[in-house]
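Readers outside the structure-tokenisation community will struggle with the description of the input data as it stands. Showing the layout once, in full, would remove most of the difficulty. For illustration, here is how one protein appears when written out as sequence plus structure tokens:
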Amino acid sequence: MDSPLIKTAVVLQHAPTEGPGRVADLLAEQGIAVSCRQVFAGDPVPGNLDDDALLVVMGGPMGVGDAGDRRFLFLGHEIALLARMVAEDRPVLGICLGAQLLAAGGGAAVYPNRRRDAFGNLAVVREVGWGPVDLLGVDNEPALAGLRPQEQMLHWHGDTFDLPPGAVHLASTPDCPHQAFRLGTRQFGLQFHCELCADSIGLWVREDAAFVRLANGPGGARQIMVDTAALFPAAQPVWDQLLRNIIGVLLQLPTGRQ
């Protein structure tokens, strides 16, 4: 039996500054209505979605390890919803925290991104700012069609995840090998950010200044803004291409409709 035609996207938002951005714009191009649930403000996580809906799970300052915290009880509900979506091969896009939650829903571990330093000690590696991502399978993965083997992305995280059982590995960096994956036919997790406009990046630099300093030192904020001015104009069409590709898979669009 064919999957029902997707009409609605339900977005789970974890912070005021981390909305769907270009994801919402590109869904609207396909006539998809977007319903944003601000779970950080008390909107409930749905127990399930209608058959004609897809799910988008955004980033946030909390982590999967906070699922037991009374402030973030919505995280456990999201993991349960994502587990059902995975089991039913329903369409999902998770970005940053959303990718980590999707990995957890798919049965994988999520944990701080640690690497050994020059002295052999384990230290948390926080990827914050611009950096190249190696894309795996650009010649055969529809989600990566039209992209080069390496593209510039924006990073903003300190956690990582194991690949869920059966996942297809789609992207990697030296400091964080699991940057993107596909589960089943229509669940995608992206650890990096490709949904932002340049103004949103500037807002994050200001609003999350402490995390930027922790990751990159006192000059980190200025460097991100310098890199944004230099790299964003060329990166945005690449990011849109990636998101359009993924949306096309989520919607099961025939060739030529993306």
Summary: Residues 37 and 44 are 7 Å apart (CA to CA). The chain has one domain: 8-251. The longest strand covers residues 127-135. The mean pLDDT is 95.
